Amino acid sequence: MQWQSTFHIADICFEIRANTDLCRSEMQSIISLYEPSPATPDTVFTFEKQNDTFTLSADGETLWQSQDSRDFPPAFEIHLYRLAVEQMAPRLLSLHASAVCVHDRACIFAGVSGAGKSSICTAALLKSAGYLTDEFTLLDSKGMVHPFPRPLQWDSIDHPAFTQSDLLKDDLFSKSLYSFPDPDGNIVTSHLWLPAHLQHQALEAAWVVLPQYDADAPAAELLPLRRSEGLMQLPQHLQQHLSPAESLKELNRRIPNSVEFFSVRFSDVHAAWEAVFQTISK
Amino acid sequence: MDNILNISVPEKPIKKDGLTCEEMEGMDEVIFVDDETGSNFSVNLVAAAVLDLCDGNHTAEDIAGFISETMNTDRQRALIDTQAILSEFAAYGVIQAD
């Protein structure tokens, strides 16, 4: 065994064991935001090199096999998230949404890819909000949001709304990356941004914001939504399969009546976060 | 539409066998595919929840109670809407009519 690491995501404990140092720094970057765990692992990943072949397994089941070690950081990452979400159900419902800590409570941003949920999350983190997640908002049955602090990821080193110096200033983020060949053999680089202000404890859900980036919109237009309107938008973002009635029932049960819903249409993500922050701080 | 609304609905409706439900991210509607014929139709989430509850165990009142509680709406209004939705489902053969 060359290295191993044990960590937890919400109440699930994972361990990874490797007999090679290849990909070590990349895999450790992927798990660097999760807290170490002394618990017995629920799932053990193994990453092994035998002769010229690498194998990634979970609890003895082969997940990926290849002779190119660069395949393994993304394979590990995808299967880690898949298994985490699967094993948390039904205790924790996973919503494809970002979430930050503001005033010791959770503010959730739910939207389709491209709606701007990760961008508005990043804008919030740049204003010192605490990081819960950018992709997996975990709701328990008591209205609490549990952290799933995976690294924020962009395909490009530059983001239209944030410069590298913005992100690295004041040590709010550190960065890492891994590269891998896509099915056509082109090299893809995944840039990992690691927020410094992590929220490690579960927080009461207080606000749900439905962002919609629109280049033609005003800088930011924030509108309150009725609870029923907001709830209706959420089942499409569930990452565990439930029937329509079950989706509504579970979301209604897990999102407290005190939660306020908003939509924000924006062309400037910084203005969008400012509008959200001003409103929820009243 | 008047004809549709006049079709009677069983006390505890049952949806047609072989309907597969697909929720599509980015769409406000849910798509149901009839595995037997390949035909499909889309409905909003509340109507999808109503159809989901057509399992032979729930009356229109039960379903309206669920909708009313979940969506925080008036129970009588929810019952009227649920009955209208069930009548349409019966008219289109999505649930078994009396």
Please provide a written account of the structure.
- The complex is a heterodimer of chains A (282) and B (98).
- The model of chain A has no long low-confidence stretch (mean pLDDT 94).
- Chain A is an alpha+beta fold.
- Chain A contains seven helices and 17 strands.
- In chain A, the strands form three sheets. Chain A has a six-stranded mixed sheet, with helices on one face. In chain A, strands 7-8-15-11-10 form a five-stranded mixed β-barrel.
- A three-stranded antiparallel sheet of chain B has the order 1-2-3.
- In chain B, helix 3 (60-71) crosses helix 4.
- The chains are: A alpha+beta (282), B alpha+beta (98).
- The A-B interface holds A 96, 112-113, 227-228, 231-233, 235-238, 243-249, 252 and B 21, 23-28, 30, 44-46, 48-49, 51-53, 66, 69-73.
What proportion strand of chain B? 15-25%
Lateral arrangement of strands in the main beta sheet of chain B: 1-2-3
Element-level helix/strand string of chain A: EEHEEEEHEEHEEEEHEEEEHHEH
Structural class of chain B: alpha+beta
Which residues of chain A sit in consecutive blocks of at least 5 with pLDDT less than 50? Answer: none
Q: Give Rg of chain A in angstroms.
A: 19 Å
Helix content of chain A: 10-25%
Q: Largest interface, per-chain counts?
A: A-B, 20 and 22 residues
Instruction: Determine Rg of chain B (CA atoms, Å).
Output: 13 Å
Mean pLDDT across all residues of chain B, rounded?
86
Number of helices of chain B: 4
Terminal Cα span of chain A: 54 Å
Which regions of chain B have little confidence, pLDDT < 50, spanning 5+ residues? none
Order of helices and strands of chain B: HEEEHHH
Task: List the keywords.
heterodimer; A: 282 residues; alpha+beta; 6-stranded mixed sheet; B: 98 residues
Provide a compact summary of the structure.
The complex is a heterodimer of chains A (282) and B (98). Chain A is of the alpha+beta class.
Layout of helices and strands:
The complex is a heterodimer of chains A (282) and B (98).
Chain A: E1 3-9, E2 12-18, H1 24-30, E3 35-36, E4 43-50, E5 53-58, E6 61-66, H2 72-88, E7 93-102, E8 105-110, H3 117-126, E9 130-133, E10 136-139, E11 144-146, E12 152-154, H4 164-168, E13 173-181, E14 187-195, E15 203-213, E16 220-225, H5 227-233, H6 244-254, E17 260-266, H7 269-280
Parallel strand pairs in A: 2-4, 8-15, 15-17
Antiparallel strand pairs in A: 1-2, 1-3, 4-5, 5-6, 7-8, 7-9, 7-10, 10-11, 11-15, 12-14, 13-14, 16-17
Chain B: H1 2-6, E1 19-23, E2 29-34, E3 40-44, H2 45-52, H3 60-71, H4 75-91
Antiparallel strand pairs in B: 1-2, 2-3
Helix pairs in contact in B: 3-4
